[in-house]
Amino acid sequence: MSSERDSVLHSWCVPAQWDAPTVTGGHGAWLELEDGREILDLSSLAECSNLGHQHPRVVAAIRRQAEQLCFVTAAWGAAPRRALAERLLELAGFEGGLVYFTLGGADANENAVRIARLAAGRPAGLVITRDRSYHGASHFAMALSGDVRTQHQVEAAAWGVRHVPPPYSYRCPFGSTTPAECGQQAALAVADCIDTEGRERCAAVLIEPDAGSNGIVAPDGYWPRLRAVTRERGVWLIADEVMSAFGRCGEWFAWQRHGTAGQPDLMTLAKGLTGAMIPLGAVVLSREVAGRIASKPFQAGLTYCGHPLACAAALAALEAYRDERLLERSRALGHELLRELRRLQSHHPVIGEVRGGHGLFVVVELVADRMTRTPLAPWPQQPPALGALLEAALAEGVSFGARGNLLLLAPPLVIEERELAQAVALLDRLLARFFPSASPEQRA
């Protein structure tokens, strides 16, 4: 049998080295493979399958919608599109706002900036984002991202983008000694950038409120302070909730953990919006932003924006999150997962820090030396021993997510407690196997 490598160009890999099993189905937190094996998914694939695989409620909704209306462009109305927009505005508390639908997260972020610039009356207004951030892999989204993997492909300044240091408290770029201080300094770095560049030049700040593939979990005070900084300066705040929304961080949207003090002017959505079962993204606009653009030409859009099948899937997904109490479940299991991984940290010196746990998103950072916090490999290179651990885990039926020196544990919100315990127990054994030795400093 020929390999898919012979006919498909896959993303984020060296094409000639791609070698992955074929998935033929799934259920709950499990993937079913062509060779008959089942794999427990601890990453929700790309931190997007929040409802697990083949959720029956979403499958049924797609089937019903397909029998009624498969497609109509956004130039025409569609009942599921209207219903979904109304529901998202309700969940976000954005009364009087608008929703612009996209195909996914990258174009949601691009269009959020476009809308913010239009609302600010600054067509080429400056956009401030963070180093070590990820907002997508289309060309403008790469400029918005502070991702070392793609930054050489695009000149961010040419796109009107400035990057500031992140609130990475474990390796604080400001030299702060506490998470709270690091978060404060990171928010002030945004303020300094706006003041230096000039408030009249700045259109928006685009930031991930919580979970992200960069593995940075901001200190609690960071987001409310950032909200205050942008509001004081009259600059729109865009929350990139592509990964962090829909229960991933224990709330509908991660900023809601901070109440109204954290409410952004715009937010972007994708991934868990449909449980990843059909591509769909969205930009949610506050009443003020919507009012600013209501009488201006908005010349944007793609053929499949707000596709009826995708909107029907999203409505069913939102019902599943609510009826199955998956946000509450994510908070409870996230707290349990954080506790268990910190228990592993106490007897595996290779674990430098465990962070997250607001929902089912926990980051484990591996180090060569716990005292000095020396990474196992330069970011974002993956240490060979971690690669071997991931292969061994897959051979034993568990797929962990990883990037660089980080393990990103973000299982579907429907995962059973015993399945989560099974995965943690396997990780415990494999850490002892692949990182058996420790220096006296690591044992400290």
Number of helices: 13
Helical residues, percent: 25-40%
Give the strand line-up of the largest sheet. 4-10-9-8-7-5-6
CATH architecture annotation of the largest domain: 3-Layer(aba) Sandwich
CATH class of the largest domain: Alpha Beta
Helix/strand-derived category reads: alpha/beta
The ordered H/E elements are EEEHHHEHEHEHEHEEEHHHEEEHEEEHH
Strand content bin: 15-25%
Radius of gyration: 22 Å
Under CATH, the topology of the largest domain is which? Aspartate Aminotransferase, domain 2
Mean pLDDT: 95
Question: What does it look like?
Answer:
The protein is an alpha/beta fold and 444 residues long. Helices cover 36% and strands 16% of the residues. The protein contains 13 helices and 16 strands. The strands form three sheets. Strands 4-10-9-8-7-5-6 form a seven-stranded mixed β-sheet, sandwiched between helices. A hairpin with a 2-residue loop joins strand 1 (23-27) and strand 2. The protein is globular, with a radius of gyration of 22 Å. The chain starts with 22 loop residues before the first strand and ends with a helix.
